[in-house]
Amino acid sequence: MNAGAEGAESAEQRRAPRSKRSAETRERILAAATEVFARSGFHGARVADIAEQAGIAYGLVYHYFRNKDDILAAIFSERWAQYIGYLHEVGSMPLPFAERMRRLVHFWVEISRREPDLMTIMINEISRSYEFLESHDIGTVLVAFDAIESMIQEARDKGEVARDLDPQLATYIVFGAAEMVLTGYVIGTLQRDSAEAFAHDEEQMLGLLLTGLVGEPR
Amino acid sequence: MNAGAEGAESAEQRRAPRSKRSAETRERILAAATEVFARSGFHGARVADIAEQAGIAYGLVYHYFRNKDDILAAIFSERWAQYIGYLHEVGSMPLPFAERMRRLVHFWVEISRREPDLMTIMINEISRSYEFLESHDIGTVLVAFDAIESMIQEARDKGEVARDLDPQLATYIVFGAAEMVLTGYVIGTLQRDSAEAFAHDEEQMLGLLLTGLVGEPR
Amino acid sequence: MNAGAEGAESAEQRRAPRSKRSAETRERILAAATEVFARSGFHGARVADIAEQAGIAYGLVYHYFRNKDDILAAIFSERWAQYIGYLHEVGSMPLPFAERMRRLVHFWVEISRREPDLMTIMINEISRSYEFLESHDIGTVLVAFDAIESMIQEARDKGEVARDLDPQLATYIVFGAAEMVLTGYVIGTLQRDSAEAFAHDEEQMLGLLLTGLVGEPR
Amino acid sequence: MNAGAEGAESAEQRRAPRSKRSAETRERILAAATEVFARSGFHGARVADIAEQAGIAYGLVYHYFRNKDDILAAIFSERWAQYIGYLHEVGSMPLPFAERMRRLVHFWVEISRREPDLMTIMINEISRSYEFLESHDIGTVLVAFDAIESMIQEARDKGEVARDLDPQLATYIVFGAAEMVLTGYVIGTLQRDSAEAFAHDEEQMLGLLLTGLVGEPR
DNA sequence: GATGAATGAGTCTTCATTCAT
DNA sequence: GATGAATGAAGACTCATTCAT
Predict the structure, then answer these.
(1) Which domains does chain A have, with CATH numbers?
(2) Do C215 and D212 touch (CB under 8 A)?
(3) What long-range pairs does A23-26 form, CB within 8 A, spacing at least 24?
(4) pTM metric for this prediction
């Protein structure tokens, strides 16, 4: 398509300024969309709102994204990718299961603190399965589940978790538990204002997931 | 008119044949809407679809509900009410905490099996929807959380759960865990086709919530 | 239903209650419609509003009137008829022109005081010519103009008004002048709270119409 | 493209070709709406009709006006403004009262001749519409009354009109008289086809308003 | 690249009117 | 006569997307 136009060597750099600006605009759109989607939801967000938030004309959005869906998909895949990356990273570290879980929980809470808008979107839009199943790569979402499931599976094999545990179901439970707490942050019913408060929550979540409500050896 | 046929039944039933038909139509609309919302989502559902599903003219929908939102709100409040009712019922029974949790989990799974459409809506359209949370009574939703929180609080006082447990946070975790499993049923990534399979899930969830991933005394 | 309870007497009278009741209901609808039309305008008034105001089911309205237009037409023709009647009555009396005008003006002001709703409708709806011309008998309206025009014409022949006066145009002016004052009453920009105030207005109008703004021989 | 043709004209015109086109489209919509409203009335006019008349797509109307009401309001405020302007202009001229009235009457008749559609709307949709009066600035309408009232008041102080005249009431009468004649033009019951005919009407109106039906010194 | 004017399909909602009971 | 459930045509309005400049 544009391969011929690329030219040699410096071409990449010559293209740079333009593509740099381009990339910046693209990023600005994504950032704006993240904010607007978080505030109004995917359906409630108008392309015009996103453009306005990004400080550009709304027609320009269509130079960077095929359509509105595409924007959500981009937010989703690009951010989720790094998330998945982290999951795999944690999964491949030679750490005890409890420590892996600790990092996982910490990671989730951290993201929620730093990028609440992004987390809001993840939580609110991604679970709209009927839409997702049709238009996006639900597989990509499931990869995250798989990563956690492998983690649990492996831990079970090593005897770090109960032998009769169903790894798949356990994954859903771990994921759901974390997600609801994050939702609490997002909708403001769980208000936390200090790093300590968040740290405390992490402890609680970790303890509860590992040893349950009853669990004493915490 | 047919008053004679009605006889001296309960006063409630005598509440006019017309109202009766009316009530039936209303129910038919709610049932149709539940199905359509579950299939297409609130935004994707057209009032015309609901009317068609209910086998009525679409203007009639507006005799029973102010607008589309109102239909969702009705599904929500009328079903959620009975749900809350059950929570309180379980909460007031003189049962050990573990048993209460068992019933709770069973209740959730049962509803999902019997009324998957309703559960789909609850999960997709209501529990995550800022729109809904903004326009309707978020308080009503939170009552469910409160009921569970009281349950946990009480159990803590009795020493049935860990002393340092944060009841509020624990509630979110319990709720979130259950919700995600149900979401798995809803979107079909967790396929269960027998009563045994569901029963097994209940055991798993209960065990995990009570004694955690590690938990041995299960 | 309750016919048997009514007892015997003559057939006419036995039918009387029914047609009497009928006539009453019809009147109640007209009265209600007058109020509602005055408040909300013809377009803004819903048949259901009228029925509610009349205290009946809205389907019943269609037993008495073909449709909404028909109600307005009835108000119009039945009330206007008596109005026209008065105009002709005044026109046929052997009175000096000034006296006729006085009675005319008094009549208008009186109606406005006693039946402001009716007057509001007359003023607001009847001039919507495009609708009127199509659906109603504009001729009936014009009869009123004709009556006044004849009055002026005759006065001119007798030398009671300026010889070069165009009776038709003068009619419009007289009519318009009165109508705007009444409109002032209706919309509340001309507030009058005593019989004297209204009487004073009548004097002013009469004086102005007869001898003009300048006019001294008043 | 046409920038070169524009040259170094006034800054106002340089205000971008795009805005220019925009302004033209807006004007085209207003003109179309004026025609359609006059023909079918505000309620009877469909936005689609207006768009078609303007030769544009349906949705474009909503780029320029919030809704149908807004279009009527724009017609009203933009035209009425110039109308009020003229009233004040006449009011501030050092002219005898009779001359002022002459100009006023002439002005009304002229507008009716030149922009019958506009006048139709003013009369049918605005000056009588409770809807309009409620939702918009009735004050703006009343300013016109005030202007005339001041004119009469001043004339009374100078002894140009009867000493016992109520200026406010007189204003309503003058206004109403004129309005009804214009209504006659609008609904076609007063057909005038020559400049002379209109001029003659002006004479009649002026004479009648100044010296009344009886008035001889005319 | 950038702009925003233009397009028009898609839906909700209203409400006069009909009709079974 | 009376009721109000049922119908469905009609129309306002939104907004994603295209495209000329």
Answers:
(1) 1-65 (1.10.10.60), 73-218 (1.10.357.10)
(2) yes
(3) A25/A54, A25/A56, A25/A60, A25/A64, A26/A64
(4) 0.81
